[in-house]
């Protein structure tokens, strides 16, 4: 059966809203299922900034959550989920507890504090606005938007030799099965085209117009480094209309990390908080291992598109600025 490309918003049953502070270099991407969605999470990086991660543990009682927030601001930005909760509660969405409904909102953040204004971070107001947009005027776009607003890659030598990155998406359909991925790419390492093996973004040479390998640099400077330039982190989400429970979705999220490994090198380091969510937004019957395999594929392509659809900003060049 042939697969065809679709837009990430065509999977259905998920509302996506994005908001950003372009001057400050930070933002949010919020995905909402007002009736709840089964969700799983797999964290491979050593420095995650996250909220309500334990809800997605298969041993926990909650079988669905109502929103996933991908954001900037590192741990400071985690308060944005409170704004999403406020909007959902006001509109009657959440887990009923008698006196009100409690929306279950998970969040993961990347580190963008060194890009522009380190003291302007996603907050409750920005979370509330992103939730409102998701319902009233869904606006998902790749590039310098939402959680990708302040994203950069190739930071082993600090910000002087890194590149602008962003957020990217890719989705496919085969018969009635749909699956897609969104990735906000903010890696310590370099980004590669997984189809050709060619480096397309990452650590810049001294001329800031051509690329060098982060791994090669690390080999040449192999002494122990206690602080590999603050935090980084690639955060992503796999969305499918296939029906799975959260234990199965945790496995699918784990398989999607193969997409990270194909496209980012080095990946899952102590200086990254690399995390992937997987959510079920439909009732199509599909094989778990097939969906996990496709999850890795769409994640790899989403990472490439995050880099290739980004514009230069804050003094950092983008992929289209490089000498080829």
How many β-strand stretches?
A: 18
- Basic shape: globular
- How much helix, percentage-wise, in residues? 10-25%
Mean pLDDT: 94
So what's the oligomer here?
single chain
End-to-end gap: 37 Å
**Low-confidence region ranges:** none
Structural classification: alpha+beta
The total of helices stands at 5
Strand content: 25-35%
Gyration radius from CA atoms, angstroms? 18 Å
Ordered list of secondary-structure elements with their pairings:
Elements: E1 4-6, E2 15-21, E3 26-37, E4 39-43, E5 49-51, E6 65-71, H1 80-90, E7 95-96, E8 101-102, E9 105-109, H2 124-136, E10 152-153, E11 163-164, E12 167-174, E13 177-184, E14 190-192, E15 199-201, H3 214-220, E16 235-242, H4 246-263, E17 264-265, E18 275-284, H5 288-308
Parallel strand pairs: 6-9, 16-18
Antiparallel strand pairs: 1-12, 2-3, 3-6, 4-18, 5-9, 7-8, 10-11, 12-13, 13-16, 14-15, 14-17
Helix pairs in contact: 1-2, 4-5
Protein architecture, described:
- This protein is of the alpha+beta class and 324 residues long.
- It is 22% helix and 28% strand.
- It contains 5 helices and 18 strands.
- The strands form 5 sheets. Strands 1-12-13-16-18-4 form a 6-stranded mixed beta sheet. It has a 5-stranded mixed beta sheet with strand order 2-3-6-9-5. Strands 15-14-17 form a 3-stranded antiparallel beta sheet.
- Helix 1 packs across helix 2 (124-136) and helix 4 (246-263) crosses helix 5 (288-308).
- The model has no long low-confidence stretch (mean pLDDT 94).
């Amino acid at each position: 059966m042939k697969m065809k490309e679709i837009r990430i918003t065509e999977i259905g049953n998920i509302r996506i809203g994005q908001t950003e502070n372009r001057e400050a270099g930070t933002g949010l991407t919020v995905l909402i299922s007002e009736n709840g969605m089964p969700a799983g999470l797999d964290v491979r990086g050593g420095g995650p900034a996250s909220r309500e991660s334990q809800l997605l543990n298969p041993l926990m009682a909650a079988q669905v959550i109502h929103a996933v927030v991908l954001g900037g601001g590192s741990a400071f930005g985690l308060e944005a989920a409170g704004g999403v909760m406020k909007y959902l509660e006001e509109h009657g969405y959440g887990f009923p507890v008698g006196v009100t409904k409690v929306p279950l909102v998970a969040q993961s953040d990347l580190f963008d504090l060194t890009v522009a204004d380190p003291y302007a971070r996603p907050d409750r107001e920005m979370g509330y606005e992103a939730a409102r947009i998701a319902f009233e005027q869904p606006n998902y776009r790749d590039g310098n938007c939402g959680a990708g607003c302040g994203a950069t890659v190739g930071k082993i030598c600090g910000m002087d030799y890194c590149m602008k990155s962003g957020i990217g998406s890719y989705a496919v359909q085969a018969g009635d099965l749909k699956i897609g991925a969104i990735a906000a790419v903010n890696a310590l390492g370099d980004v590669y085209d997984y189809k050709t093996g060619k480096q397309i973004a990452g650590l810049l040479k001294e001329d800031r117009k051509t690329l060098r390998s982060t791994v090669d640099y690390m080999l040449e400077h192999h002494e122990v480094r206690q602080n590999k330039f603050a935090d980084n982190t690639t955060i992503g989400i796999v969305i499918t209309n296939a029906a799975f429970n959260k234990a199965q979705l945790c496995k699918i999220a784990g398989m999607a990390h193969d997409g990270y490994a194909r496209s980012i090198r080095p990946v899952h380091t102590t200086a990254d908080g690399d995390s992937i969510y997987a959510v079920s937004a439909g009732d199509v019957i599909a094989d778990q291992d097939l969906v996990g395999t496709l999850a890795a594929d769409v994640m790899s392509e989403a990472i490439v598109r995050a880099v290739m659809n980004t514009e230069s900003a804050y003094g950092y060049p983008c992929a289209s600025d490089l000498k080829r």
